[in-house]
Structures are given as C-alpha cells and as structure tokens.
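Journal club side-thread
Mid-discussion, someone asked how the predicted structure for our own chain would compare to the paper's figures. Pasting it here so we can look after the session.
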Amino acid sequence: MLSGTPPASAVGTYRLTVTATNGVAPNATQAFVLTVAPARPPNTFAVSHVKTGRTTQIAFDVTVLGPGTITAVVTVPAGAVSAAATRKGKPKRLTIAKANVKVKHGATVRIKTRPNTVGRLFAGSAHNKAELSLTVTFKPTGGTARTVTIKHLHLR
C-alpha cells in the first residue's frame, strides 16, 4: 500500500512504475498514472456590517478567502409593493435590488446593492416598513457556491 498527501505545489500528472520482486523471476511490474488535482477553493465567506438606508440600497461587507463572484439580492414580500402582486400564480417575494461583484483574491469588500424599478416603487410607498431579506451568494472560481440569507431587515 502507498499513501500520502501531496503538497499544493505538486499539482500535475505523474507516471509511476511499481516493481515487486521476491527473488524468483520474473519481477512483477505495474505502470500507473497519478493525477494530483488542485484543491477545491474554499467557499466559506462572512457577511458583516449590514446597513440599510431610506432607499432599498443595502450596504454590507463580505469577507472571502479567495477569488470568485459575490451576488447579492434584496427581496420584499410581493404585497408590500402592490396588492396586484399577490394574485395567484405571482411570486411571493419580489427582487428590489441587486449587486454582482467579482473578487480577484481573498479580501473584505464593501458592497452596495442597486435598487431596480420595483425597489424605487417600494421605497416610495406607504408599505415600506415591510421586512427585507438580503441573500448573498459566493461562488469561488472553480468551486461550489454557498448562500446565506439575512432576514428581518427594515428601511430607516
């Protein structure tokens, strides 16, 4: 049995030949190809310092360990924007602001969502006391996305 953990610098393909001998001819020989793949990038991240304002713009910090894409979506219950939005078959939540940021390396970045048309209607409506949800997704380059949702946010 052969075992071990290669260092990160060992990424690549290696041709190996194993020969077993017991003193009796012929020796047993077996060729192998060993491929060392790069480690999957970490998809852990942290969201902090969330601030809301009078508009549907939300500012917050995201700390990531490596390169990738951060996507943020702010939603509100559909009925908070328009009673017509709550009709059967309509979505239960409406997107009111978004942000999309590419990160080149591990860092903490400040992100501000940008309100869309629905978000501007919501901010100017009498229903703007409804709870907002902020959903943040980090997809590391070459890795698997992870998502976190922060609920119960309010405009100031």
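Post-session note: The first helix runs from residue 117 to 123.
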